[in-house]
Amino acid sequence: MGEPGLWFGLLGSLEIRRDGLPLDLPGPRQRALLTALLLRANQVVGLDELADSVWQGKPTEAAATTLRSYVMRLRRVLGPADGGRVRAVGTGYRLEVRPGELDLQVFTDLAARGRRARAACEWAQCAAVLGEALALWRGEPLPDLARHAGEHPDVEGLRELRLQALDWRIEADLRLGRHAEVLAELRALTAQHPLVEVFHAQLMLALYRSGRQADALAAYEQARQVLAEELGADPGPPLQQLHRRVLALDPSLDLEPGTEEATRGPEPDAAPVGGAASTFRSPAQLPADLPDFTGRRVPLKRLRDLLLPSVAGAAAPRAVVVSTITGTGGIGKTTLAVHTAHQVAASFPDGQLYVDLRGMSETPLSPAEVLGDALRALGVPDGEIPRSEEARSASFRTLLAGRRMLLLLDNAHDAAQVRPLLPGDGGCGVLVTCRTRLVGLAGAATEYLDVWEEAEAAELFAAVVGRERVAAEPEAVREVLAHCAGLPLAVRIAASRLASRPGWTVAHLASRLADERERLDTLDTADAAVRTSFRVSYTQLVLAERQGVSDAGRAFRLLGLAPLTEIGVDAAAALFGLGVREAERLLEQLVDVSLLESPAPGRYRMHDLLRSYARECAAQDEQEGPRYAAVARLVGWYVRTAEQAMDLVYSHRRRFPSDPAAPGPAGLCFDTAAAALSWCETERANLVAVTRLAGGSGLDTEAWTLPANLLHFFNMRGHLTEWLECFTIGLAHARRAGSADGEAWMLGGLSVAHRVLEQYDLALTESQEAVEVCRRSGDVPGEATHTSSLASVLHLLGRSQEAVLWFERALPLRRQVGDLSGVAATLNNLGCVHHANGSPDRAADCYREALEISRGSGLEYLEAAVLDGLGSVSVDLGEGEAAVSFFRESIGIRVRIGDTMGEAVGQENLGDALAAQDRVAQAREAWEQAAALLRRTGHPGEARISAKLAASDGAASPA
Whole-prediction pTM value? Predict the structure, then answer.
């Protein structure tokens, strides 16, 4: 068969030929790039590995950019027809090489055929095929590359593969009686490779069969002296045994006269000579599968699809299929890997290897140790196992060439530990479990395991505890599973503990888990423990911390102090007391070891049980002062950020600014009000958690100033649950701090929330208390605000005349302190009361003055409210089109400023005005939009609008 149109050569100097003619190659770095891609042909090679190869282990800062230019030049060398073979894939590149185009692949295929012929004792076929393979070599591999590249493990592996092929081919020649023909070659090989005992053994045998016993014994003596001088060791057992057999003129060393040894197998009790074929074993080392394996249906299917051929009888892929399973401790990586392996084992008839790499221990297994054990498991005698890691890796790949074997590499440390253990060609599958992200393992598919959904957790819990017992206490079961937070190990331990204690109820277990101080103790058993699973990863961080390598251990502990559902990198920087870039580096290190998740760029999340463990670590390993300082920094950052956010959203609100001289991070700044509101929405759960944290840490002032800053946000978006909790906490801590401002503002905020909930009696009491606190403290602006609020509640209670009196008290107080937004708000409210009292003209006067102030002062929020009032008055005055216009203008403002609750009010009012004009279809559209907006927050007003929609059904239907 002739040479293909495009041909790549690695077995000698690096070459590219097209149609038999050499192509000009670029400079040394581009040659190094091409070599790295060819050594991993048809696989993705990561940028880090490429940079390491191109710059000899010392890449520049601009390596990634420069590599792109080198790739462009390489594409130009390959030409327009083949330049597209170099493809960017993810964070690396892949070079497509087709069958027959790369001498290394052709050599590997021929060597595999030779190995199979050797195993079948087909010596003539073995010698011919391996001779063809060795003819591809043009000298030392890649001598024209830099010294660093020439010492690369892959290049060393090529040398080992050639020696192995030479060993087997000469063995075949000796079996065929060609001892005289190989003498000169063996003399040269023993001189070039004096420490390779197999060549000395083959030389002895060739000399002996040539009738030269004395020369054979002299060859042994020369080998013994070389080994003693170079290694200080005697020859190995096979060579010593051959020496004894030569001395004894052992007839089994002779060929039968006139007979090729190819016609019979090796003597059954003869020691292997010169690499004689070892019996290949098919190991079956998989651990037992779990009988109650639960869940993971989607990742299990993905793993099966990767490992099994998509079409029955399809040819095996040229690239090894490698799947990595990562996730935090206790997430079920090994369980899934073992279950998957059992599911696909039948498709790997040559066996299954399993090894625990002990990656998270203080002494992870070295690749050399693992390869030695693997070669023994595959039937290689100790005396034939090479010494170096590179040679063992090459032998391992050779032994697996052309076979279908499954490897399960459990608990890996990093990609460097795994890479030498990978087979060299397709047909084999590899499953790797690891707590760290094996980003350096080119071409591997990654399956990241997250916590279980409740249904998966409940399935296992019921399987272990018993379905009758679970069915008897469904609510308690939900509580237990909530405390286990979807961590499979925690669910299994909790279920096992309950199953072994028939006197316990599920509710009793739930109560034990509810106590955070007792939770991790409850999830410990004699042979499994959530805490122990976490400790394995944390111990690695502590070790790195003590060695001065990383502060990720401290970052982990401090994250335990922050009870946040997610944390942004800026907030984490505040917590750590570091710059944003350094904080992000530590967070990413925690993600890499699966102690943290990154659900979105710049956002990080910690499992609830991990946070409990991190808090324990902080209590043990951090002094009280640094713990308090970290919490204070985090809380202060949230207070300042909320303050700066609401300055953009509603700059005319009453402000309770933080102390600008106080130490701590400055907080985020925002370009637009929309961005500020978006941050508030994203951080909503955290804002509640930080309010709790401030209160629990003795930061009383921050515990009320944070919600005080957020009142307008809660009001605009209608987050009533968070609103009530924050302000209830804030009220308690404002009182504890003795802050009249804080007490009055918290009371006022609670009053507004209860007004929205239509709990008017409670709202009235809170407004009255707020007014009284302001009077006692001499806070005139506060008194004006809460007096106006009190009047609004009285109006809602139907006490409209009293409401007018209280508004008329509030209005001069507002004017006295120059509070224009307050004046406009009070006029708006007073207009509402006059309208309700049947005085639309007086109401319109109040609204017009309020509108003038609002527009003149840029108070869009108030302007929209006033427009709603004018619209309502216009409806009563019979000015329907004007009303619709006012409402639509108000809705436009609400949408623009992000006032969701105000938009709902405007849509409801618009629907009312349209319905009054018998425009029922348009009215229904407006009401439906209002109902949808209120439904998102569970606002009680939705029921009122639903009633309007129901009543309009008949009117909207055709007669």
Answer: 0.58
